[in-house]
Design brief:
Mean pLDDT: 90
Distance between the termini: 34 Å
Number of helices: 10
Number of domains: 1
Shape: globular
CATH class: Alpha Beta
Radius of gyration: 16 Å
Number of strands: 7
Helix content: 40-55%
Order of helices and strands: HEEHHEHEHHEEHHHHE
Structural class: alpha/beta
Low-confidence stretches: none
CATH topology: Uracil-DNA Glycosylase, subunit E
Bound molecules: iron/sulfur cluster
């Protein structure tokens, strides 16, 4: 299956209640062979109308942050944990995340990125559990996830958080500035992905 075929399937999905109020599904967008994937929580109002991820104010900030490290949106892949907008921008319910999760599994399996940047605590929680975002942001963790393979995760705060709490913007910018070096390191040392203990369900710091 290709990413395009997967996204075609998502466009008619009714596996959870979020299908009832959505305008468009927002499967994700970008390079299907990207080295870096950004994962947010769920689409907002603008995303729901356009069918594209991160096109509102938080998306504008994400684009600026990417440009700041020499990355264009077309060179990355951007997606969310749930592909339909939770009404009123509420948090997705656990059963909605569960229903949508296989799509993210398939996306990451097909793209096979070097680095997954999680945006916000909800996105981080599934990949780097049992940590608070204030403690984990700006650090890289490697882990094997069932059905996704061995991946390196880099949690940062959600760009929307910086819109409400401007003091977080400096932290997001600082974390973003680490990404190019981290990517280069992973590219140089692809073998480190093979070092992941496949029996371990706990993320390990990638230093
Ligand atoms: S959120 Fe995911 S599982 Fe729920 S209807 Fe949308 S695509 Fe399907």
């Amino acid at each position: 299956m290709t990413l395009e075929e997967l996204h075609q399937g998502i466009s008619t999905c009714e596996k959870c209640g979020l299908s009832k109020e959505r305008n468009k599904t927002v499967p994700g967008d970008g390079d299907p062979h990207a080295d870096i994937v950004f994962i947010g929580e769920g689409p907002g109002r603008n995303e729901d109308q356009q069918g594209l991820p991160f096109v509102g104010a938080a998306g504008k900030l994400l684009s600026e942050l990417m440009v700041g490290i020499g990355l264009e949106r077309k060179d990355a892949f951007i997606a969310n944990v749930v592909k339909c907008r939770p009404p009123g921008n509420r948090d997705p319910l656990p059963e909605e995340v569960e229903a949508c999760w296989p799509y993210l599994e398939q996306q990451l399996k097909l793209i096979d990125p070097l680095l997954v940047v999680t945006l916000g605590r909800h996105s981080m929680n599934r990949f780097v559990p049992n940590k608070s975002i204030s403690e984990a942001h700006g650090q890289a963790f490697r882990r094997e996830i069932p059905n996704m393979g061995k991946l390196v995760f880099f949690p940062i705060y959600h760009p929307a958080a910086a819109l409400y709490r401007p003091q977080l913007k400096d932290e997001i910018v600082a974390d973003f500035s680490k990404v190019p070096k981290l990517l280069a390191k992973i590219k140089q040392d692809k073998e480190m992905r093979a070092e992941v203990d496949s029996q371990s369900t706990q993320p390990k710091l990638f230093t």
